[in-house]
């Protein structure tokens, strides 16, 4: 599908993919939320120039308006409610093993650690308290692999992790109290389908 791109088109495609991965990385890693407000606004402005579909355009507007009006506070509150707090609705899983083995720290963690060892990326535990199978971390890992043109490993990682992201999207949609992360789930679905076309 993307074999016949000109060098400029290929670079534009790479830049767009990097932007999406970085955008999701900043909003699915709790520790990054506070420092990402202005960057997320700028990223959304760029992404709104070429939405992946009609659903994406509406979702971007929801997020842009919220960030402009209230900053990150309501996204942080919703993040905690959906992904961290054990009461209320069913907690949304943020780990590969949750989706593949129905627990945390199972075979999926070992597999992603083995893939990580093929790169020079390591989790900085002083800044990031989650393991390598955390879906937020994996957005950042994919961005790094694409940026450094580690195409084979990026494909191997994507094929392994993509079904967990579709699981994440579905679990967010099952939560009736999701608003901003519902908008992010809609954006993520469009992007995951696009990425699937890149790799499959």
Portion of residues within helices: 55-70%
- Which descriptor suits the 3D outline? globular
Rg, alpha carbons: 16 Å
**Oligomer description:** single chain
Strand content: under 5%
What is the mean predicted local confidence, pLDDT? 92
* Class of secondary structure makeup: mainly alpha
* Number of distinct beta strands: 0
Number of helices: 9
In terms of per-residue confidence, which ranges show pLDDT below 50 for 5 or more consecutive residues? none
**Major beta sheet summary:** none
First-last Cα distance: 10 Å
- Would you list the SSEs in sequence order as H and E? HHHHHHHHH
Describe this structure in words.
With 200 residues, the chain is an all-alpha fold. It contains nine helices and no strands. The longest helix has 24 residues, at 151-174. The protein is globular. The mean pLDDT is 92.
Concise account of the structure shown:
With 200 residues, the chain is an all-alpha fold.
Task: Spell out the blueprint of helices and strands.
Layout lengths: L6 H22 L8 H11 L6 H17 L2 H12 L11 H5 L6 H10 L18 H13 L3 H24 L5 H20 L1
Helix pairs in contact: 1-2, 1-7, 2-3, 3-9, 7-8, 8-9
